[in-house]
Specification:
The complex is a heterodimer of chains A (373) and B (57). Chain A is α+β, with helices and mostly antiparallel strands and 373 residues long. Helix content of chain A is 44%, strand content 16%. The longest helix of chain A is centred in the first third of the chain and has 34 residues, at 34-67. The chains are: A alpha+beta (373), B mainly alpha (57). Chain A: Keywords: Copper, Electron transport, Heme, Iron, Membrane, Metal-binding, Respiratory chain, Translocase, Transmembrane, Transmembrane helix, Transport.
């Protein structure tokens, strides 16, 4: 009787814990989509099945060890087989597995059904940033980590969204079926937002599909979930979900920006404009390897500050940025940066940290090179 | 033949009576069991595929 009472108290205690502890940071999030909720309930269902099996199996084992111990005169039974028992303990796990597989398969089927989407977004992984392209809308941009390097190096206190904040989040409408097409420009990445229960590998040469229908406006954060190199932990995912009207306004604004950016290639740029833009581009794109002060990390990442050979050869400098250097970590930026950013960052590199070439590279020149190639 | 099928099914399930196992080893030819096992494995794959097709419907 006392044993039963103790057991009952334990069950109640565990049930009480469930409400508080399991809904906390320790458990997976319930999320804000139908799929994420069904993934969560599958997780909890299977978790409790495991708990029950664990309690029964270990309970029976520890009870037998204690109750039939040798000092109490227990004698071991010697028998070889017992077909009925064996059939029994083979059938039960089979039934449990089928009981778990049926709802899990139903959810998987839902997750893989990417048909009839309202909006398609191409997500391309780069070392180490995400690129979002709204297919058919002519809007495409990069999403870079925006956590200041002082916080990363421990020189400033870390803020709430340390390493989970970006300069430009992916913006999506709520209550719409959004299809994600994931791919990669270099190595395998994985685009992951726990609140949507979406985690999809981004692989070079492949296009994977996933989808979501967000139910609540808000900001959702995630990370790259496939080890992709030095800055794997520095390419977060941030999604800003908003009402359809707000989304339409945002998209219209982005389209306008894209149009005016195209115009700005043709005009004459001043040195200080290029330096200001170049510094921004350098710190988000180049500084990860060549370091904030251009000192590099020799021998893998050469220094740019005081690199006389490079400063004497403008043609080579432009070529390296546009086309990369084969057999090294230096990628080609002709496809990922626009002419303004390329011109600005080269101008910046040639006139910062004691490099004083005085060279001003015009976006229109870069544009001309790109179209002639 | 029915005995062979029953023994192969028992092997698929993973549980067999000791007496049946002994008699199989005394009377049957190995090649019959192997061939039956291969055929029934193919049948099972077919069954699983058709269940999956039905579920994907």
């Amino acid at each position: 009787m006392r044993k039963v009472l103790v057991l009952a108290v334990m069950v109640v205690a565990i049930a009480g814990l469930q409400r508080n502890a399991l809904a906390s940071d320790w458990n997976m999030p319930v999320g804000v989509t139908e799929i994420s909720r069904s993934v969560y309930s599958l997780h909890m269902l299977i978790f409790w099945i495991c708990v029950v099996i664990g309690v029964v199996v270990f309970g029976a084992m520890f009870y037998s060890l204690f109750r039939y111990r040798r000092s109490k005169g227990a004698k071991a039974a010697h028998f070889h087989e017992h077909t009925t028992v064996e059939v029994f303990w083979t059938t039960i796990p089979l039934l449990i597995l089928v009981a778990m597989a049926v709802p899990a398969t139903a959810t998987l089927k839902e997750m893989y059904d990417t048909s009839e989407s309202d909006l398609d977004v191409l997500i391309t992984g780069h070392q180490w940033r995400w690129q979002y392209e709204y297919l058919g809308e002519g809007v495409s941009f990069f999403s870079n980590l925006s956590t200041p390097s002082a916080q990363i190096e421990g020189e400033a206190p870390k803020d709430e969204h340390y390493l989970l904040e970006v300069d430009q989040p992916l913006v999506l409408p709520v209550d719409r079926k959004v299809r994600f097409l994931t791919t990669s420009a270099d190595v395998i990445h994985s685009w992951w937002v726990p609140a949507f229960a979406v985690k999809k590998d981004a692989m070079p040469g492949f296009i994977n599909e996933a989808w979501t229908r967000i139910e609540e406006p808000g900001i959702y954060r995630g990370q790259c979930a496939e080890l992709c190199g030095r800055n794997h932990g520095f390419m977060p995912v941030v999604v800003h979900a908003m009402e359809q009207d707000d989304f339409d306004a945002w998209l219209a604004e982005r389209k306008q920006q894209a149009a005016s950016a195209a115009n700005s290639v043709d005009r004459e740029w001043k040195m200080d404009e290029l330096m200001a833009q170049g510094e921004k581009v350098y710190s988000t794109i180049c500084a990860a390897c060549h370091q904030a002060e251009g000192q590099g990390l020799p021998p893998t990442f050469p220094a740019l500050a005081g690199n006389q050979a490079l400063m004497d050869d403008l043609e080579k400098h432009i070529g390296v940025v546009l086309n990369g250097v084969s057999e090294t970590a230096m990628p080609a930026f002709s496809g990922t940066l626009n002419p303004v950013d390329i011109a600005a960052v080269i101008t910046y590199e040639r006139n910062a940290w004691g490099n004083e070439t005085g060279d001003v590279i015009q976006p229109s020149d870069i544009q001309a090179r790109l179209s002639s190639e | 033949m029915w005995q062979v099928i029953k023994s192969v099914l028992a092997a698929f399930f993973g549980v067999q009576k000791d007496s049946r196992r002994r008699s199989d080893f005394e009377h049957g030819k190995p090649i019959v069991f192997i061939a039956t096992g291969v055929v029934m494995a193919l049948i099972m794959v077919g069954l699983v595929v058709s269940v999956a097709m039905m579920a994907a419907g």
